[in-house]
Amino acid sequence: MSATAPASVAHLLQTTPRRTRTTGEVLYAVYLVLLFGGLYGGLLIHAILTIPTPPPSPAQLRWLGTVLVALAPAAALLGVRFGRWAGPVPVTQAEASLLLPTPLDRRRLLLPRYWWSLGLAVLLGAALALAGVVLLSLALTVGPAAWWLLPGCGAVLGLLATGCAGLAQSWPATGRRHGLVRMVLALALGVPLLTTATPWLPAVPAEAVLRSLAAGLLDQPGATERPIGAGATVPLAAPTLLVVLASTAGVLAVVAGDRVWRSHDEELVARAGVHGGAAASLRMGDLRAVTQLASARVRRRPLSSPPLPRRSVGAVTWRHLVGLRAQPGPLVRAGLGWALATWLVLATPDRVGLTGIAFRIMAACGVLVLAVGPLLEPLRREHDAPLAAELLPFGFARLARLHLRAATVLVTVTGLSGVLLAGLLLGAAPGGSAAGGPAPGGPAPGAGGVGTWVGWGGPAPGWLALLVPLAAVTAVITVADRVRQPENLAEVVAAMPLGATPEVLGVALAARLATPLFGMLPLALPLGAAVAATLQPVPGAGVAAALLPLPGGVVVAAVVLGVVLLALRVGGLLLWLSEFERSLLDAEVLEPSSTIPIAWRRLRARLHRH
Amino acid sequence: MAGPAVRLAAVSRAFGAVEAVRHLDLEVAEGACIGLVGHNGSGKSTLLQLIAGRLRPSSGRIEVDGHDLGTHAGRAHARHAVAVGGATGAFYPDLTVAEHLELVAVAHGLGERAGNPVVHERVDALLTRAALEPRRDAVPSQLSTGMRQKLDLALALIRPSRLLVLDEPDRGLDPAARHRLWEDVDAYRRDGGTVLVATHQPEGLDALLDEVLLLEYGEVVARGALAAVADTPAGRRLGLDR
Predict the structure, then answer these.
(1) pLDDT score of A449
(2) A346 pLDDT band (50/70/90 cuts)?
(3) Does residue B168 carry a pLDDT above 60?
(4) Are strands B82-85 and B163-167 parallel, antiparallel or unpaired?
(5) What secondary structure letter does DSSP report for A216?
(6) N or C: which end of chain B has fewer CB within 10 A?
(7) Inter-helix orientation angle A237-260/A204-212, to 10°
(8) How many helices (H) and strands (E) does chain B have?
(9) Which residues of A touch B84 (CB under 8 A)?
(10) How far apart are CA A549 and CA A455, in angstroms?
């Protein structure tokens, strides 16, 4: 069977100028890179600058080993889930329609994408673990073994997750039929947690693995006095386990690679829409879009299905409750979430040394969002996916009422995320403590800044001080952004303006809504700090000191970054709006007088004539 | 080829609880032109996707030119032999109309590289035939629905194939384009190809369609000449008699 060399096809695709990429899109991409890069980069820099001193005791660091033990089955589970949803071999709808049905050498067409995904996952895992080692090295003396063992663990986890994803993507079944696989993975995830969480169960296997992993190196007596992972202290089991895990994951990855290119078109085509939608959403927004798309796939709801008509809350709730019996995925997730919460709250304080009601509240909030969210998501989506006809005419109050529920959910989730983020950010500040007060031997309250008061160890007013302004700001931004921007309306009423399905468009829209919320987060932090300082003045320090727990340079950089982000956001949106309208008009989707800027331009021309 | 071009044996396909195609047995002779009619959701598109190898049957066996689509080799053969048009409408946003045609032609081995004289000539002919010549440098977002449909059909016709599967190819076409479409299908059949076409407007296609299959809820409830099918109870329910 002869196959055309894909090189000529690739050449044709690569040499085609990207004439549809607008300046606005480029600006928006820069905006996203700066936003997320700045956010996470700032977090990393802040964490490095404010690493707690004195260093954590070996007993506190033991939990890292537990996490690593749990991460292997968790990575496999996540990989399977990712594979069932999208998979590591991205195929767009266009490729599914035009290139897959050709006699091209499928191995050469698909395998490079798989290897790229694999390499990226390995590098990402190693880089993340390396960042952890760098952080540790600032507080502790890190021996040479830790420098390769921990990144090795990260790389192997990436390899394992991608291999599992590849296997799942090439799996012929289209439904959720892998009960056995899921059960094994859930057991693999749950058993270590249970054995470490409950002292009356035999914890020997988990402890053995715990101590043999790289983090177990940190548990050596006197780890803070001598190099961590120094040759003499490396247990043989650690590198052995790593090699075994790497070998297993490697074999798995190779097998998955061989299966992927042989897989049936249906598996690849079914995910093509997800890949395209996710790519479009990522271009325009954030990971929330991907999460929602994942939710759509998990519930086996076709992406091309139109938004359902609105109906009563009771009817929809009842239908979903009945549906849970047939598809108990959300219930399982909720159960696993609560099990994780139980483990976190009951077991972790003993192991990590973190105590205090704030930590338990944080864990409960996190689990609430993670576990109960999936249960509520179908209701929210059904009630916030209005028919296009319902959006006409464009009444502000009507639209605001329609989308208030979406805004409420977004605000709640973002607010909680903000609190967690702020807790992580400020709790790590000098003087911050997870125990609700100053760290043992640390500075007195007030000496370290506002972290003591509004961090995760702070009292309830501190939490409220962060939550209230965040909620207020994000509520206003969300509703205003949803209603006031004409392209949102145009996007909803247009049939398929970006070549995407209505559901994907809705997700992309939600993503664009969530983006400014994340952008507002760093801006809202000083506000929350000010409120906290007003509520509970820091003894011996003024408001200015409370507002500036960070070095002055970091604050100035954050402000500059915020201004640049805002300018890019506005400029990018305006440019994108212009291009978007033009494409709608070219496609005869919109009448020339149906959008605000067009009407404004007409009015301006008329005024000019007169 | 001795056997039929397409053979389905007890083929079913379910989407969750919905069975789109039920225990279907079908044989399509080489060089035949078969029409599929039926209500929305009767299983026409699913059946065509199954024959094209893009969907996997829940049960049963599908053969194209004697090759079992349940095997990797069978699906590879289907990619060579079966051209699909009218159903997808998915295009590369950055490629022009002409470049789309060049891409598919090159991918099917019509030329080593885009710009090859053979490819160029074939692209020009199809663009002219589909009345897309004035928009050859337009990207898909600049095309109307009917133009996209024309491009989709041109993409199905530019590649060599033995079986042409068309899912509502006349949707969104103006009368002149619709007339040209059926002329092209007839020419394809006269060249020895086999055609399976689903349509909601079979009127006037008596000469073209050798046989019409009427589907209801995934089952063939009537088959034969268009006039005979229109005269059945199912045909009357569908409104073929009007």
Answers:
(1) 35
(2) very low
(3) yes
(4) parallel
(5) G
(6) C
(7) 90
(8) 8, 10
(9) 101
(10) 12
Best mutation target among A4, A105, A174 (most B Cβ atoms within 10 Å) is A4
**Would you list the domain boundaries of chain B?**
6-90+161-238
The residue type found at B99 is E
For residue A30, the number of C-alpha atoms closer than 13 Å in the C-beta half-sphere is: 17
CATH of B6-90+161-238, one of 3.40.50.300, 3.20.20.70, 3.30.565.10, 3.20.20.450: 3.40.50.300
Residue-level pLDDT at A375: 54
Contact (CB, 8 A) for A383 and A483: no
Sequence letter at residue A335: G
Length of chain B: 242
Helix, strand, or coil (residue A233): helix
A346 DSSP assignment: I
Contact across the interface for A8 and B113, Cβ inside 8 Å: yes
Per the CB < 8 A criterion, the answer to whether A492 and A392 are in contact is no
Bridge-based pairing state of the strands B219-224 and B211-216: antiparallel
Mutation site for A-interface testing, chosen from B65, B94, B101 by largest number of A Cβ within 10 Å = B94
Cα(A210)–Cα(A194) distance, integer angstroms: 14
CA distance, residue B118 to nearest chain A CA (Å): 15
Least Cα separation, residue A583 to chain B (angstroms): 7
Give per-residue pLDDT as tens, A384-407: 443 333 333 334 444 444 444 444
> Residue B224 pairs with which residues in a beta bridge?
B212
CB A4 within 8 A of CB B109: yes
Most confident of A189-203, A413-427, B17-31: B17-31
Location of structure tokens 């035939």: B129
Would you place residue A263 in the very low, low, confident or very high pLDDT band (cuts 50, 70, 90)? confident
**A37 and chain B in contact, CB less than 8 A:** no
Burial class (CB in 10 A: 0-12, 13-18, 19+), A408: middle
Residues B23/B10, Cβ–Cβ less than 8 Å: yes
Interval B115-133: pLDDT, tens: 677 888 889 999 988 888 8
Percent of chain A with pLDDT over 70: 19
- Alpha carbon of A584: minimum distance to chain B alpha carbons (Å): 8
Of residues A388, A422, A244, A223, the one with CA closest to residue A307: A388
Q: And the tokens for A195? A: 């054995």
Distance, in Å, from the CA atom of A187 to the CA atom of A201, rounded to the nearest integer, reads: 15
CA distance B161 to chain A (A): 10
- Residue B98 pLDDT level (bands cut at 50, 70, 90): confident
Q: Which two tokens stand for residue A392?
A: 């006409």
| Bridge partners, residue A374, by sequence | none
Q: Which residue of A has its CA nearest to B92?
A: A94
Model confidence at B8, pLDDT cuts 50, 70, 90, reads very high
